[in-house]
Every structure is written in structure tokens, then in C-alpha cells.
Design goal:
CATH class: Mainly Alpha
Number of domains: 1
CATH topology: Sodium/glucose cotransporter
Order of helices and strands: HHHHHHHHEEEEHHHHHHHHHHH
Radius of gyration: 22 Å
Helix content: over 70%
Strand content: under 5%
Number of helices: 19
Length: about 475
């Protein structure tokens, strides 16, 4: 529950319903399917092997530390590079959480987005500094419960207010492409950037086709799980291997239910409030609109706490993991190897503050779309660490050179595809995670085969983990 709560963040209650509200089922549904499948496969094939390997790799407790120990490196290049990428992408992730806070509180209290976003960021920063990994995991469990209850309440109340399930489907079906999985609704937008409203109804153009390549790129969201530090750390920290089977079932059920409900909330919102939100950014407030207009104040407050819970459960993970990567992996692992715990803690807190400030700057744009910010950071982690994690766990021939090349090429391709290649349109306008993941995988294989094979000790580690000859040590 902690893994999934930290994974989903505020975009589950705001970003995903906003996509469904704005352009219908296709984009939101294929994304949700990819995430659900990716969740199950990640728990099925990665969790147990990573749990064993992290023990074998000198009881590693962070992702950079695991990769560095996995390849028995002495000069800590993998450690440093991976820690820096974690810092970059988690800063972007934290920005998406701060955007969520800003939208939530400015909508509820009718105050300025910027001031509410900064207040939310300060609260999250203080909360993270006061806690630690155990406190964060325990609180994330409770927040996961709040999130799924909030989703259930809103979808049930919203459906009832819309006249029942049949009425929701009939009304949404009147919008061209809205309920299609191989087509997408196209809101008619005026010169002012707002959707055009005529006779009290929002205007849509003809449905646009949704091709197989686009669908595959959206389902590639599932590939991101193989490189997601906040989820992988839970695999490394679990008490015993035999708990993973039950964890997999709980995680999968939670994800399937929460994603399905989040998508349907967007559909219900479009039926009940067709002209309330006239931009893609504003559409992400549909969950708030449904809650405040349909529920008594006390219950609406509880549901709003669901959004805050989703945001906090993710942002504290992002900040804590990023700060740990700098303080433990770079400062203590490279810069000052004999640093005391007090010095490491000081660097951690300074790093938390710097990350929070940069994330606030990124989140200053009130028109930011949470879904888009999250999708970029997700692609960054998925392409940087996903292929490397899979090859590290399941391919004996991967070596240190291949690992470094794979990380750099995956991250580089995410930026290149997002900022340059996707602008070409057509078949290039796909989600950057898919091409970047494939490119990183190819680079890992090619570079590993062209350079010296791994040492005998590294191969012995691999074989021991594969055979299960690793004590089921408890990571305290």
C-alpha cells in the first residue's frame, strides 16, 4: 500500500480524471491499463530477485548504492551518475506535487495559486524533515486508504447525481469519440485557449483516430515501474521474501480499482459539469468540483484530504529519496567517506531545501498540467533505470560500461525525444518513454558485448542470487 500510494501521487485524483474529462476514455484508459499491467509484472518478476540481490550487494538500501555494489565498482561512477539522475527527475516530480497543492487550496479557499502552492511546499518540506523512511512508509499506508475511500465516495455520489450509470454512459456517448478506445474526443478551442461553449454546451470537433502506435506508447507507462525508485526501494526493504506474494496481490487490486475509478470520475464529471472547466489544466480540478458540489462540508473535507494524502505520500518519498541520493551516495559515498551521521543528516536537510526551492520555481506556472509533468518524470526514471534494473537482475553478461552507457543514453533520449523529435509530429508524437526505453536497452547490450565481460566475483554474485543462495536478511 505504501509503494502504490507513493507511486500514484496527486495525479491519480486530479491528473488522470482531468485527462478523461478533457478528451474522453482513450488516453486515460490505455495509460491506466499500462500502469496496472506494469504494476503486476514488476511485483511478479522484479521484487523477489531485487530483494535477494540487494542483500548480496552488501545489503544495499538505496538504488544508486545497489547498482554500484552490483558491479563492484571502486571509483563510484555509477553511484554518482544514478544519484544525479534521481535528483533531477525527483525534483520535477516534486514540482508536480506542489502544483497539486496549489490547485487544491486555491480552488478551495479562493486565494492565489502561487501563495497556496508555496504554503503547500513548506508544509511538505517540514513533514519530510521531521520523519524518516519508516514514518513515511507507515503514513503512506494510511494515506493509501484515504485515497481509495475518497475515490469510491466521489464516483458513487457523482454517478447517483448524474442519474445512474446508464445516464452517464448515454450522455457521454453523445460527445464524438468520448467513450471510444480507438478514437479520442477533440475539444473545440477558441483563440483565447478556452473550449468554445454554445447554447450552454461545450463544442467538440470530429473524433480523432487513436492508432496502435499511440496505444503502445501509452501502455509503455507500465515500463516505467522497472525504474521507479520509490517502488523499488520497498522491494529492497521488505522484511521477508515470502511477504511479496501477498504484497503483489494487494498492490495489483489497489491499483486496478483506483485507476478504473479515477478514469470514470472524469467521465462522470463531464456529464455533470460540462462547461465548468474549459482548459486541460482546469479540467484537473474536476475531482474538487464534484466533491465540493455534491457532498456535505464534513465529508467533502475528508475527500479533499484524499488529494492531500496522495500528494504528501508521493512528495515525501520523492524528496527523501532524492536527498538521500545526494547525502548518502554522493557526499558520504564519494566526497567524504568518513562522514558522521550528523554530517550526513545536515547535508540531507540542506538538499531537501534546495530541491524544494527548485521544485517551487518549476511549479510557479498556474497553467501547468499535472499529468504532463508527471509523464516526463516517469519517462525519465523508466528509461534511465528500467532497462538497467532488468538487465542487472536477469542478464549475467551486463558489465559496468554497459550500465553507465544505458543510464546516460536512456535519460538523454527522454530529453531529446520530448524536446526535439516529438515536435516533428506524426509517428514521432508518441510518449517518450517507449523509444527511450528501447534505445537504452539496445545500448546496454551493444556496449556490454563490445567491452570486457564482468569479473568472476560479479558473475558469482549473479549465480548465487539466481539460485536463491542468499540469506533472507532483515533490512533494519
Amino acid at each position: 500500500m505504501s509503494a502504490e500510494a507513493s507511486d500514484m501521487s496527486g495525479w491519480l485524483l486530479m491528473g488522470l480524471p482531468g485527462v478523461a474529462y478533457w478528451c474522453g476514455l482513450a488516453e486515460a484508459t490505455w495509460t491506466a491499463i499500462g500502469l496496472a499491467v506494469g504494476t503486476y509484472i514488476n511485483w511478479l518478476i522484479v521484487s523477489k530477485r531485487l530483494r535477494r540481490y540487494s542483500v548480496r550487494a552488501n545489503n544495499s538500501i538505496t538504488l544508486p548504492e545497489f547498482f554500484s555494489n552490483r558491479f563492484r565498482e571502486k571509483n563510484k561512477v555509477i553511484l554518482t551518475v544514478s544519484a544525479l539522475f534521481i535528483l533531477v527527475f525527483f525534483t520535477v516530480y516534486a514540482a508536480s506535487c506542489f502544483v497539486t497543492c496549489g490547485k487544491l487550496f486555491s480552488s478551495l479557499f479562493g486565494t492565489s495559486y502561487t501563495s497556496m502552492m508555496i504554503i503547500g511546499a513548506v508544509f511538505v518540506l517540514l513533514y519530510t524533515i521531521l520523519g524518516g523512511f519508516l514514518a513515511e512508509s507507515a503514513s503512506d499506508f494510511m494515506q493509501a486508504l484515504v485515497m481509495i475511500i475518497a475515490l469510491a465516495v466521489i464516483v458513487i455520489i457523482g454517478t447517483v447525481n448524474a442519474g445512474g450509470l446508464g445516464a452517464v454512459i448515454d450522455n457521454a456517448d453523445n460527445i464524438p469519440g468520448f467513450l471510444e478506445l480507438f478514437g479520442i474526443a477533440v475539444p473545440a478551442v477558441g483563440a483565447d485557449g478556452l473550449q468554445i461553449v454554445e447554447n450552454g454546451a461545450p463544442l467538440f470537433g470530429d473524433a480523432a483516430p487513436y492508432g496502435i502506435l499511440t496505444i503502445c506508447s501509452l501502455m509503455a507507462w507500465g515500463l516505467g515501474y522497472f525504474g521507479m525508485p520509490q517502488v523499488l526501494l520497498r522491494f529492497m526493504a521488505i522484511r521477508k521474501e515470502d511477504e511479496l506474494k501477498r504484497s503483489r496481490r494487494i498492490a495489483t487490486v489497489w491499483v486496478v480499482i483506483s485507476l478504473a475509478v479515477a478514469v470514470f470520475i472524469g467521465v462522470v464529471g463531464r456529464v455533470l459539469f460540462p462547461v465548468e472547466h474549459l482548459t486541460a489544466s482546469s479540467a484537473e480540478n474536476i475531482f474538487i468540483t464534484l466533491a465540493t458540489s455534491s457532498l456535505p462540508s464534513l465529508l467533502a473535507g475528508f475527500v479533499m484530504a484524499g488529494i492531500l494524502a496522495a500528494t504528501i505520500s508521493s512528495s515525501d518519498s520523492y524528496l527523501l529519496i532524492a536527498a538521500s541520493a545526494v547525502a548518502k551516495n554522493i557526499f558520504q559515498g564519494v566526497v567524504k567517506k568518513k562522514a558522521t551521521d550528523k554530517q550526513v543528516m545536515l547535508v540531507t536537510r540542506i538538499t531537501l531545501l534546495v530541491i524544494a526551492i527548485i521544485a517551487v520555481v518549476i511549479a510557479l506556472d498556474e497553467d501547468s498540467v499535472i499529468f504532463k509533468i508527471v509523464s516526463f518524470a516517469w519517462a525519465g526514471f523508466g528509461a534511465t533505470f528500467g532497462p538497467l534494473m532488468l538487465f542487472s537482475l536477469f542478464w549475467k553478461r551486463i558489465n559496468r560500461a554497459g550500465a553507465i552507457a544505458g543510464m546516460v543514453s536512456g535519460a538523454g533520449m527522454v530529453f531529446l525525444w520530448k524536446l526535439v523529435i516529438s515536435k516533428l509530429g506524426g509517428i514521432f508524437a508518441i510518449y517518450e518513454l517507449l523509444p527511450a526505453f528501447i534505445f537504452s536497452s539496445i545500448v546496454i547490450v551493444v556496449v556490454s558485448l563490445l567491452t570486457a565481460p564482468p569479473s568472476k566475483e560479479i558473475v558469482e554474485d549473479f549465480e548465487a542470487v539466481k539460485a536463491g543462495n542468499v540469506p533472507d536478511a532483515v533490512v533494519e
